[in-house]
Predict the 3D structure of the following.
Amino acid sequence: MAISIPDFFRFAADNVDLLEEIYETEEIDDAALAYNIARFRRPNSPSAETTKRQLFALGILEPTAESETRYEMLSYLRDVFDWLLKRQQILGGHVLAAYLSELIDSVDALSEQRKTKNAAAVRRILVSVTDLIDRMRRFGTAHREAVTTEAQRLRAVTEPLSPTERFGVVSYIWERLLVHLRELIDTKGRFTSRLNSLEHLLSDAEETFRSDLVISRNLARAKAKLRRMQQTVLDAHHQSLVEISPLYERMRKESLWARGASTALMLARESGVASLKLEDRLGIVESRSQQQYGNDRLLARIAEITKYDDSDTVTLPKRKPVAPLEIISRNEFVQALRAAAPINDVLTFILEMWPNLPTKELLRLYLSVRMGRLGRIEFYRGGSKDYHLPRLTIQAWPISLKAPR
């Protein structure tokens, strides 16, 4: 039986504090539930028994798998609270890979139905493809917010964690989640290539069903959602790297210092300070409170220095003027892109336009286009090529830029 939407939201509005308390508790028994209902009860609230009955009738609580007298909040409602309180779970590349696998099946089915011009089947498949694209976009948004929240929590040092434990948390996020996700959505990864294939397929289907206004409009909407989702996932992953990368390096150093200090203290306690061999490890030299000279040559040299005459002046050569570092501003770069658009190979265009720029500046300009911040890009399907930079040769897939923004 369907749940009444007005009844659900009316009950949620009247019992916000109770629902948040249940959310914060993994499981709750009869006694704790009755206590919290009475605790948050208002003068005009219904009876405690009625409130408890509504919690189950509206699909908010259900018995746990272990006991009929212990209850838990349903997972769909817990996901809503996670989203509202920015407590999403950090998900790795395996989740996006599962979405991608499902998307590949839908693309194959859509391709077959386009060839046979089966309009009814195309409509059904488009509903599934659009829903899947929306779920992938929500994954990207939730992933970014979860990583940002976790990074802020670790920087705030609100929990009594040792440097080694804190590094363990960051290391898990970096090595087990972000690195695998980066391999999936990299330039040569399946994510980018499959989405490009789907976009081409949607364009071909739009041309095939041009006479059917409903399908044509749905195909155009699916293409727009696809581009937005791809940009959301790429931006979310880039933002996650920006949040975690410096935190990972800092906590890795702190962890190494903590491990080294702990090991040194343990050795000093068990075998004495002499076992650390600080003189050999740190280069500590022996010092004396009073200088002693036992070498006549050294005494003669000191006497010679005391009679030094600085009347002879030495003229130092003049420094050659240093050429100012050439940096291309964003406005100048965007104007150049617009003047040359459409651009079939962005990196070749940059090398020809500014051949004397430092390598670091050339790559900075290329990366600003590669991240999609200056307009929608497309990757060349024919494979990678070599680019010869000053004192450096790199290999990358050519990217094209149609309309810079």
DSSP finds 15 helices and seven strands in the chain. The chain has three domains: 5-84, 93-265, 330-401. The chain has a mean pLDDT of 77. Residues 338 and 404 are 6 Å apart (CA to CA).
